[in-house]
Amino acid sequence: MALVPCPECGWNVSSKATACPQCGYPLQMEPIIQPLPDPGDLRQWEGEVGRTLVFLAVGQITGVVYGSDVYTSDSPLATVAVHAGILQPGETGLVRVYMVPPLPSYHGTTRNGIRSLEWETPWHGAYRVERG
Ligand SMILES: [Zn+2]
After folding, report:
1. CA of 30 to the centre of ligand 1 (A)
2. What is the pLDDT of residues 95-110, one digit of tens each?
3. 125: how many CB neighbours lie within 10 A of its CB?
4. Containing H/E element for 71?
5. Of 73, 66, 75, residue with least CA distance to 48
6. How many angstroms is it from 18 CA to the middle of ligand 1?
7. DSSP code, position 78
C-alpha cells in the first residue's frame, strides 16, 4: 500500500484513504462514478428532475427517438447517444444523462445519420445527454 503525504499537514496517508486521519483533509475530491448498464430508455427515472446518471452504452441506429437536445424519456439511450454525437454506431462509451423538466413539445431533427421525430404534445419525462 502506497503512502502519500497529506497536502495539508504532511502526515503520511494511504493512497486509498478518502481523508487524512490526522487532520481530516479530503484526499479524493472526485467521487468514483460507477457507470450503470444501458437501461434501454429513461422511463424509470421520470419525475427525478435534476438527477444525473452515467451509463455504459453501445451506440445504435435502430429505435425511435423523439426530440433534439432534450429527448422524451422513452427514447432509447443508445440511439439518442448517436443522434447527439456522443457515440458512433457500435461504439461503446460513457453517456451522462441529466433528467430535466418535461417540455410542452419535442422537436425532431436529423443529426449524425439519425432522424428523430416530433412529439407535439406534452410528455411527462425528459432528459439531456453529454459525453460521460
Ligand atoms: Zn492531514
Report:
1. 18
2. 999 999 999 999 999 9
3. 22
4. strand 70-72
5. 73
6. 11
7. H
% of the chain surpassing 70 pLDDT: 95
DSSP calls for 82-114: HHTTSS-TT-EEEEEEEEEPPPS-B---EETTE
pTM of the model: 0.76
CB atoms within 10 A of CB 4: 14
Q: Taking Cα atoms as reference points, which of 5, 78, 88 lies closest to residue 39?
A: 78
Distance 12 CA to ligand 1 centre (A): 8
C-alpha cell at 49: 428532475
The rounded Å distance from CA 27 to ligand 1 centre is: 9
Q: Do the Cβ atoms of 114 and 65 come closer than 8 Å?
A: yes
